[in-house]
Amino acid sequence: MTEGTRGARGPRSSSSAPVILDIEDFKGDFSFDALFGNLVNDLLPSFLEEEADSGDGHGNIDGLANGHLRGGQSDASRFSQVSSAPFFPEVDGLLSLFKDSCKELIDLRKQVDGRLNTLKKEVSTQDAKHRKTLTEIEKGVDGLFESFARLDGRISSVGQTAAKIGDHLQSADAQRETASQTIELIKYLMEFNGSPGDLMELSALFSDDSRVAEAASIAQKLRSFAEEDIGRQGAAGNATPGRGLEVAVANLQDYCNELENRLLSRFDAASQRRDLSTMSECAKILSQFNRGTSAMQHYVATRPMFIDVEVMNSDIRLVLGDDGSQPSPSNVARGLASLYKQITDTVRKEAATITAVFPAPNEVMAILVQRVLEQRVTGILDKILVKPSLSSPPPVQEGGLLLYLRMFAVAYEKTQELAKDLRAVGCGDLDVEDLTESLFSSHKDEYPEHERASLKQLYQAKMEELRAESQGSESSGTIGRSKGASISSSQQQIAVTVVTEFVRWSEEAISRCTLLSSQPATLAANVKAIFTCLLDQVSVYITEGLERARDGLSEAAGLRERFVLGTLSRRVAAAAASAAEAAAAAGESSFKAFMVAVQRCGSSVAIVQQYFANSISRLLLPVDGAHAASCEEMSTALSKAEVAAYKGLQQCIETVISEVERLLSAEQMATDYKSPDDGFSPDHRPTNACIRVVAYLSRVLESAFTALEGLNKQAFLTELGNRLDKLLLTHWQKFTFNPSGGLRLKRDINEYGDFVKRFSVPSVEEKFELLGIMANVFIVAPESLATLFEGSPSIRKDAQRFIQLREDYKSAKLATRLSSLWPSLS
């Protein structure tokens, strides 16, 4: 109910039952609080005013609570007021209002339910009508689709018919056009059917310069037709085709030749003027003659770089220089780089013109690049690369085979770079890399032989140089040798720098081999051959060096044998002793020289092995078995040097032992171990012979300690230590010992033992320790000999020989006493 409606209504009573609620009150934004307020506002105006006045709180005024009045009046007055009038007089009106409202709500609900039922019926009726309409529409749509399908079928049929008609019309038009062209061609063909060579009666088309393209096209068609007709007649068995066609073909050929020459002349004139438009027009027309091959070849052949002799001379001067002397590879490399840059720039400029002129520029570029490589590049390569003879190679002083190989590598590398640059500029379908390879094919076929021959030539020249240096120093070395100086001069020694030079030659050869060998298998084979040359060179060089050092040892041995001291007069003996000292000095010098040779030999072998591991082995892997074969060759080649080194080390041991024996014989006195003043305090110093021997060994073996390494050093020192032990045993058996002499012998043995400890060979150290134990047989009393070797039964046999050297051996009857104690030794 709206505000206006509610405001018009007056007080209600239960008898009148006025309309209180309206269905419109429940529409829109319905609020129960608002509805209730509108119902009771007319009955409770004073309540609303009191409620408004009490908005400030509950300070001094009490409201209603639970139906009782609270306030500031006395109880008596309140009671009297309540008794005289009702507490809430609007209750009855509100109850009546609420009852009427409930009735009206029930009525409204019934009205709404009725209207809902009516609406449901109406909706059901409309839905049935709608469904019926949809069904009818669907039937209509299906029919419409069927109509459209029939219409589409008819349209397709009509379209196909129209297309067939169009095809027939187009075919008919094409036939008409072909017939028209055929009539024209027959007419032109009859013009060429005149007398042979008679081209004067032709149509204006064939002489009009403005219609050259059309004339060329028609002439080519006529020629093709006539040639095909002659071919068909020949295939059919008619050996004498019609004369008219033969005349036509001949006249057409003459005309085409004349037209092609005329176009080429026009093309040349336009080329001189740089008239690219005319050149392009001519090239397009000429493309109808043999696909334009003559035009393309003619254009390339008339380029200045192919016909100007001065260009070729300029190329040679740029690369080889003007002075006429032999150019160096570095100068040739710079010259080729400059020349090839000029060629690339020229080709790039020509490519721009070719692209603008020719309808098939790639084909022209292929012809141009091929001509550049086959004429201009080949011309300069022939001047640079003059293949030397292997039977009579040029001397090393003039560069030898190495100069040719270096020129070859430089030319090949620079030409390969040129090929890449030309490929980048453009060369059509031409395989420029393969063509470039073909330029060097004759040189590459014999390259491995030239490389090996060059290495051999370098080795021979180096050996001749070393021999010349050695011979130059022989005159000064003769005097030195006469005074006991070194047998082998320093120039004859193995030089690590020489082996390093061999390796450097091989490295350079391998770098060329890598550049020139495109296939991995070919590269591996060439690398293996080059490395084999290096192995042969190193093997021969170090083996000969070791043999020369051995010759020094043999010469020193010969000197020792010449001056062996014998029973001579005092004057002759003094001279012989002096010569023996000189021979000893020569032996010591040759020993040190051989050790230096061994050390340098080891360093050289290490250089070769390192070079193989770092540079060669990876290049051999692509071929099965190549790596193992090279390792076997290296082992075989170096085994010759190992044999020479082994023999020389044996000679070194002989030299040392011979000198030790000489020193012992010359310096060891009988009184060293049998002092006449045995009762006095013993001399604890080593004997003079011992001091001389140890000093000699310390001096001479210093070079062995430095030169030898690993197992070689251990084997050499073991052999030397065993020989020294055996020599000392033999030497001491020449003397008789008293107790003080035994102490001095023990001092000598300790001196020798301290020295051999530097060998770091346990077996040798043990031998000298046993010598020290055996020396005790000269020191202890006779009755203590039996217990002396209880802990060392293995040396009793040697000890028995030592015991026999005691001064009191016979007087103390030691033989009888020991035979009863050691029956196994008797």
From TrEMBL:
<dbReference type="InterPro" id="IPR009976">
    <property type="entry name" value="Sec10-like"/>
</dbReference>
<dbReference type="GO" id="GO:0006887">
    <property type="term" value="P:exocytosis"/>
</dbReference>
<dbReference type="InterPro" id="IPR048625">
    <property type="entry name" value="Sec10_N"/>
</dbReference>
<dbReference type="GO" id="GO:0000145">
    <property type="term" value="C:exocyst"/>
</dbReference>
<dbReference type="InterPro" id="IPR048627">
    <property type="entry name" value="Sec10_HB"/>
</dbReference>
<feature type="domain" description="Exocyst complex component Sec10-like alpha-helical bundle">
    <location>
        <begin position="214"/>
        <end position="816"/>
    </location>
</feature>
<keyword id="KW-0268">Exocytosis</keyword>
<feature type="domain" description="Exocyst complex component Sec10 N-terminal">
    <location>
        <begin position="92"/>
        <end position="208"/>
    </location>
</feature>
<dbReference type="GO" id="GO:0006893">
    <property type="term" value="P:Golgi to plasma membrane transport"/>
</dbReference>
<dbReference type="Pfam" id="PF20667">
    <property type="entry name" value="Sec10_N"/>
</dbReference>
<protein>
    <recommendedName>
        <fullName>Exocyst complex component Sec10</fullName>
    </recommendedName>
</protein>
<keyword id="KW-0175">Coiled coil</keyword>
<keyword id="KW-0813">Transport</keyword>
<dbReference type="Pfam" id="PF07393">
    <property type="entry name" value="Sec10_HB"/>
</dbReference>
<comment type="similarity">
    <text>Belongs to the SEC10 family.</text>
</comment>
